[in-house]
Specification:
The structure holds two protein chains of two kinds. Chain A is α+β, with helices and mostly antiparallel strands. Chain A is built from 18 helices and 15 strands. Chain A is globular and about 65 Å long. The mean pLDDT of chain A is 89. Chain B is built from eight helices and nine strands. The termini of chain B are far apart. The chains are: A alpha+beta, B alpha/beta.
Chain lengths: 537, 263
C-alpha cells in the first residue's frame, strides 16, 4: 500500500469515527488502527446494538466475522470482535466489546443483522457466552453428545481431554399442516461427499423448509492451533478444507506476515497469484462437472472431469501435490515452483481453454439441461445481502464483491480483470459465474507467467511479536476466506479464528432451496459447492 | 449431438494403466525416507513435525517415521541439517497391518494375542472373503471427519483417467448394498455413532479400508477433544492407506490390496 492510499484511508477512518462518536457518545472508547486498514474500536457492551446498527444497517457495511477471544488473562474478560467490512474503500471496522466473566452474556444483534445468527450460536457453544434475545439459540457445534458447562475455547479447557458422551435430543424446526412430512437425510450421504444432516419439511414435492445440521466434521482446529507454534499452524490451515488448501494457507500467511511486518518478494507474490487461480480453476471445473452429474448429464460430466484432471496435472507437475499443499511458507513460497515450467504450463492451459470452450458450447445448446437449471434454486439479492453471501454464490445474486478487487493482495492490484456478475441468482447464474471465472483464471495465470521475473522467493521472518493481531483474507474458490490471528509468546498462536466462505453461504443454501423440488436439492447444493469441513472446523 | 459424438471419438480412451504401469507424472511427492547413514539423530525434525510422526528409534538413535501419521508436508526434508530426509515418489504404501507403517513395534497386551488355531481360522476366512469379492465389489464411502481432500481423491477414482469400474468395482449409495467401506477422516465425536451404525448396516462379510492419515491414525488432528486417533478404535480395519491425501492411484492400490489383487 503506498503512502497516498494510507493517508486517504486514515482520513476516511477519522471521519467515520467522528460520526460514530456523535451517535454513540461516551460508550465509544479508544480506537486503534493497525496494519493500515484494520480499525479496532472499543465499545461498551451495552451499546453494541447501537454500534452494529450504525455500521451494519445505516452505513451498510456487511458483518464479515464475529468471534470471541478469551482475554481473561489480561483484563478478566472475554472480548467479542464484531468485524464490519467497508468493501468500497477496503477498510475493516472492528467493534471490540469486553464481556466480564461473571456476566457471561451479550446482546444478540441477529434481529438487526441476520448474518450474526450462526456466529452467536458458535460463541455460545464454544465460549459459553449467552446471546440474549437470540431467536434460535439451538446448539450448533455439538449434537446433544456434549456435556453442559464444558466450553472448548476457554483457555482452561484441556484440548486433549475426551469428555463422556451424553444423549440429548436435538429439536428441529417443525412445519405443521395437512400432508406435510419430513425427509431426514444424512449424515452419511448417497454420494461421495462430506457428512451433514438435512431435514426437509415437504408438502407434496416443494420444500417448505430446510434445516441443515452441520458440524459433523468438527475437529477442534481452532483449539488445536492455540498454543502450537506458528510453523505448525500453517499445516493446520492447509487442512481446514481440502479443495481450499491454498487459499486458507495463504490467508494464514497473510496474517502472520502482517504481524511480522515483512514485505514479500514480487516473484513469490506472482507465484501465489498463479496457484490461487489454479485452485479456483480446479475447484470450478469440479463444480461444473458435479452439477452435470447430478442432472444425469453424463457426457458433460466426463468432459469436465477430464478438464479437471488436466488442471490437476499442472498442479502435480509444478508442486508435486494435487491439492496445492506445502507451497506457502511464512515469508514467501517454499521453493521456486514455476521455474523452467512456464512453457509447458502455457501449452497445457491453451489446451484446457480450447476444450472448455467446446464443452461449454455443447452444454449450452442442451435445452433439457438448461431447462433444469434455469430459475431453479434462486437466491434472492436481498437474502444474499442480509446473509452476507460471498463468492460465486453472492456474485450470481448481484453482489459484486470480490476480495481480489476490494482488498487487493498478492499481485491482483497490477492485474487487469473484471468481476463476474449475474442477477438472477439461480443455478444457471452460478454456473455462468463459474464458467466466466474459469476463463478469467486461465487468463490471469497466463499473464502471471508472462510477467514473471527472476528474483527472490522468500524472506526470512525473525521472531514474531507477541499479542498482536491481524486479518488474513483472500478470495478462495468458494469466496471470501477470512482468518484472524493473535500471536502468543515465543512464536506461538494465542487465538486463530477461521471463517471460510462456506460459513457465510450455508444459510444462503437453505434459503435458496425453499420452494424447489426435493430432487433439485443436489443440484442447488452442488452449484454452491460448499465445504462442510471449512464450516465445521 | 454431433458435437458430443465428435468429442467421444476424439478422446477414445484416457484411462491410465495403473497399477500395471506406474503414474507417469514427474516430481510427485510420495512418502519421505530417512537415510540412516546421514541422520545424526539431532531431533530437529522430531520436535517440528506437525503431526508428531517422527520418533527417535531407541536402538539405532536415528529418526524414524510413522507413515500412518505422516502428512507428507515436506517439512522434514526442508529443515534437515544433514539432508538425510528425502521425499520419494512412492505412492503404493497401503498395508494390511498398521505395524508395517509404524516405525516402532506395538506393545501387544496378553489378551490381544489370539489362540494360534483362531489365527489360522481367521486368516483362512479372510482369504475366502477376498476371493469372493475378487471380481465384483461394491463400495460405500464414509467421510467420518476429513478435510474433504481424501473425498475428492476418491471421487477421482471415477474420472476417466482412473475409471475404477474397469476392475469390477463401483460405488453404491447405501451401506446395505456395500461389500466394502472406504472410510476417510478422524471419526470425529459427532460422527462416531454414524460410522458405527454404517458399519453395522453393511452386511457381512465386509471389508474396511482406512483412507488417509486421519483415518489411519488421526493425522495432524490427533489428540483433540473432538477426534479419535484413527478409525480402528471404532471399527476393524483391513487395509490402511497412508497419505494426506493419498493420490487416487494410491487409494486404488489399497482397495486392490484388500482384495489380494496386487502384491
Amino acid at each position: 500500500m503506498n503512502e497516498k492510499n494510507i493517508t486517504i484511508i486514515e482520513n476516511l477512518i477519522d471521519a467515520m469515527l467522528q460520526q460514530l462518536k456523535q451517535r454513540i457518545g461516551v460508550a465509544l472508547g479508544k480506537s486503534d488502527l493497525v496494519n493500515h486498514n484494520e480499525c479496532y474500536v472499543n465499545i461498551d457492551s451495552s451499546m453494541i446494538r447501537a454500534g452494529a446498527k450504525a455500521l451494519g444497517l445505516e452505513y451498510g457495511f456487511p458483518l464479515v466475522s464475529l468471534f470471541a477471544n478469551d482475554e481473561r488473562a489480561f483484563d478478566k474478560s472475554f472480548v467479542l470482535y464484531y468485524t464490519f467490512a467497508d468493501r468500497e474503500n477496503g477498510i475493516l471496522y472492528i467493534l471490540k466489546t469486553a464481556i466480564a466473566e461473571e456476566t457471561g452474556a451479550f446482546d444478540s444483534i441477529c434481529d438487526l443483522l441476520p448474518a450474526a445468527s450462526a456466529y452467536e450460536r458458535e460463541i455460545k457453544d464454544l465460549f459459553g457466552l449467552l446471546p440474549l434475545g437470540h431467536p434460535n439459540p439451538k446448539p450448533l457445534v455439538f449434537h446433544g453428545n456434549w456435556p453442559d458447562l464444558a466450553y472448548p475455547l476457554r483457555k482452561e479447557f484441556d484440548k486433549t481431554k475426551k469428555l463422556p458422551f451424553e444423549t440429548k435430543e436435538m429439536v428441529f424446526a417443525s412445519v405443521e399442516g395437512e400432508g406435510i412430512y419430513e425427509i431426514p437425510v444424512g449424515p452419511v450421504h448417497a454420494g461421495i461427499i462430506e457428512p451433514g444432516h438435512f431435514r426437509f419439511s415437504v408438502a407434496g414435492e416443494p420444500v417448505i423448509n430446510l434445516e441443515a445440521q452441520l458440524y459433523y466434521v468438527h475437529k477442534g482446529i481452532e483449539k488445536l492451533c492455540e498454543g502450537s507454534s506458528i510453523e505448525r499452524g500453517l499445516f493446520f490451515s492447509e487442512r481446514i478444507s481440502g479443495d481450499e488448501s491454498f487459499s486458507n494457507s495463504l490467508a494464514y500467511c497473510q496474517a502472520v506476515e502482517k504481524i511480522a511486518m515483512v514485505e514479500i518478494p514480487e516473484r513469490a507474490q506472482l507465484t501465489r497469484t498463479f496457484f490461487a487461480e489454479l485452485e479456483r480453476l480446479i475447484s470450478h471445473l469440479g463444480d461444473l462437472g458435479g452439477v452435470c452429474l447430478d442432472a444425469a448429464y453424463g457426457f458433460a460430466t466426463f468432459q469436465y472431469r477430464m478438464l479437471r484432471g488436466w488442471a490437476f496435472r499442472i498442479a502435480a507437475e509444478t508442486c508435486g501435490m494435487r491439492f496445492l499443499r506445502s507451497i506457502n511458507q511464512v515469508g514467501g513460497i517454499r521453493i521456486d515452483f514455476l521455474l523452467g515450467k512456464e512453457e509447458s504450463i502455457l501449452s497445457q492451459l491453451a489446451v484446457i481453454k480450447k476444450e472448455l470452450e467446446d464443452t461449454v458450447d455443447i452444454v449450452k445448446s442442451n435445452s433439457m439441461f438448461t431447462d433444469r437449471i434455469e430459475n431453479t434454486g434462486i437466491l434472492k439479492n436481498k437474502v444474499a445481502k442480509d446473509l452476507n453471501a460471498v463468492g460465486p454464490g453472492g456474485r450470481a445474486s448481484g453482489l459484486p464483491y470480490d476480495v481480489r478487487k476490494d482488498f487487493p493482495y498478492c499481485s491482483y492490484d497490477e492485474i487487469d480483470f473484471s468481476t463476474a456478475l449475474q442477477k438472477n441468482g439461480d443455478i444457471c447464474s452460478r454456473l455462468q459465474v463459474k464458467i466466466f471465472e474459469c476463463y478469467q483464471s486461465i487468463a490471469i495465470m497466463q499473464s502471471v507467467l508472462g510477467t514473471l521475473k527472476e528474483g527472490e522467493i522468500k524472506v526470512s521472518v525473525g521472531a514474531i511479536p507477541a499479542y498482536r493481531c491481524a486479518f488474513g483474507m483472500n478470495e478462495g474458490p468458494k469466496g471470501e476466506t477470512f482468518h484472524w490471528l493473535m500471536t502468543g509468546e515465543q512464536d506461538s498462536i494465542f487465538r486463530y479464528k477461521v471463517r471460510t466462505a462456506s460459513f457465510c453461504n450455508w444459510p444462503a443454501v437453505c434459503q435458496a432451496v425453499r420452494g424447489n423440488l426435493v430432487p433439485d436439492f443436489p443440484l442447488i447444493n452442488k452449484s454452491f459447492n460448499l465445504s462442510y469441513a471449512g464450516n465445521d472446523l | 449431438m454431433f458435437k458430443s459424438a465428435k468429442k467421444l471419438l476424439k478422446y477414445g480412451r484416457l484411462t491410465q494403466s495403473f497399477p500395471n504401469k506406474p503414474v507417469n507424472i514427474d516430481g510427485i511427492i510420495g512418502s519421505p525416507e530417512i537415510d540412516p547413514l546421514r541422520c545424526n539423530g539431532c531431533g530437529s525434525c522430531i520436535s517440528r513435525c506437525p503431526s508428531n510422526a517422527i520418533v527417535l528409534d531407541n536402538l539405532t538413535k536415528k529418526a524414524a517415521i510413522h507413515l500412518d501419521q505422516c502428512i507428507f508436508c515436506v517439512l522434514c526434508e526442508t529443515i534437515c541439517p544433514m539432508a538425510a530426509v528425502k521425499m520419494t515418489d512412492k505412492i503404493e504404501l497401503a498395508e494390511k497391518e498398521k505395524s508395517k507403517l509404524r516405525a516402532e513395534t506395538y506393545t501387544v497386551l496378553d489378551n490381544d494375542i489370539l489362540d494360534a488355531s483362531e489365527e489360522v481360522l481367521e486368516e483362512e476366512l479372510k482369504r475366502k472373503i477376498r476371493k469372493m469379492f475378487g471380481r465384483s465389489l461394491k463400495i460405500r464411502e464414509v467421510d467420518s471427519g476429513s478435510c474433504n481432500a481424501c473425498d475428492y481423491e476418491i471421487n477421482g477414482l471415477n474420472n476417466p483417467f482412473n475409471d475404477i469400474e474397469r476392475f469390477g468395482i463401483s460405488f453404491v449409495a447405501s451401506p446395505r448394498h456395500a461389500d466394502m467401506l472406504l472410510v476417510t477422516g478422524t471419526a470425529t465425536r459427532n460422527m462416531q455413532v454414524a460410522l458405527q451404525k454404517t458399519y453395522h448396516a453393511t452386511p457381512d462379510p465386509k471389508l474396511v479400508v482406512a483412507v488417509g492419515a486421519c483415518a489411519c491414525s488421526g493425522g495432524i488432528f490427533r489428540d483433540s477433544y473432538a477426534t479419535t486417533n484413527g478409525i480402528d478404535s471404532l471399527v476393524p480395519v483391513d487395509v490402511y492407506v497412508p497419505g494426506c491425501p493419498p493420490r487416487p492411484q494410491a487409494i486404488l492400490y489399497g482397495i486392490l490390496k484388500a482384495l489380494d489383487r496386487v502384491r
